[in-house]
Write a structure and sequence with these properties.
The chain has a six-stranded mixed beta sheet with strand order 5-9-10-8-6-7, with helices on one face. It has a four-stranded antiparallel beta sheet with strand order 1-2-3-4, covered by helices on one side. The longest helix has 26 residues. It is built from five helices and ten strands, in the order ααββββαββαββββα.
Length: about 250
């Protein structure tokens, strides 16, 4: 029988947690990869963040064009550098599109000040809407009522039309808009004048109707339309008042 068995060589490996070297069964020293440290993980995350961030910076400051002003758009339009969807000339006026709205420049009737006016629709979009009667006399008024029916089911487009009318009347035409209702049916209408086209006062009546139209009847202008057509009729009248359309 042989003497004492030889003590088997201990296996030495690199401990994953401590990084210390351990002996292998063959007695050879081996080193196994260390688990990435917290610092390495942070570096990887930073690299992953930096790459898309760098691409974004290049796009923002190098590739992407700087935003242009309304004046710059008009200048490009006058030089014929815009597509028909971006801008066009109409009766000598520059009409450009920005932020989903159509813009044109007009001069105040009593001063030399130039205004950038915005509309939901441009003149090409409202050319098929007729204007009946003389509406130009309203441009010389000091004030006018803007009235509507408060019992209509949907007043969203009525509100937009009223706002667009009021802003342009006061800003460009020096006509003070006075809010009114056709019926005393709501809390708001209880504290505003009740005015209709039969009141024989200067009145603009915003009416939900089937076909878009603008009609002058006595001392009243009826703006008619349903949904977006109500806005189209409103812009048709305003574009006529500021001289872009006839």
């Amino acid at each position: 029988m042989r003497g004492k068995a030889r003590k088997s060589a201990g296996r030495r490996i690199l401990d994953a947690g401590t990084g210390e070297e351990q002996e292998t069964e063959s007695g050879k020293k081996e080193r196994t990869p260390m688990i990435p440290s917290a610092l390495a993980i942070i570096i990887i995350i930073l690299v992953l963040i930096a790459i898309p961030a760098g691409i974004l910076l290049v796009y923002t400051f190098v590739l992407k064009e700087k935003p242009v002003t309304i004046e710059e758009l008009h200048a490009k339009n006058m030089r014929g550098r815009l597509s028909p969807e971006e801008g066009y000339l109409y009766n000598g006026f520059s009409v450009v599109k920005a932020n989903g709205m159509w813009w044109t420049q007009v001069q105040h009737k009593d001063t030399d000040q130039i205004y950038n006016l915005q509309f939901h629709y441009g003149p090409r979009d409202v050319g098929n809407i007729s204007i009946t009667g003389d509406v130009d006399q309203f441009r010389a008024l000091n004030s006018t009522y803007i009235t509507f029916d408060p019992t209509e089911k949907s007043l969203a487009y009525t509100a937009l039309s009223s706002a667009e009318l009021s802003i342009n009347l006061g800003q460009v035409l020096n006509v003070r808009p006075i809010a009114a209702c056709t019926k005393n049916e709501t809390a708001v209408c209880k504290v505003t004048p009740i005015i209709t086209c039969a009141s024989e006062r200067a009145t603009i009546s915003i009416e939900v109707a089937g076909a878009p139209a603008v009609k002058r009847e006595g001392a009243c202008i009826r703006i008619q339309g349903n949904g977006t057509d109500l806005l189209r009729s409103t812009d048709r009248l305003l574009l006529a008042w500021v001289g872009v359309m006839k």
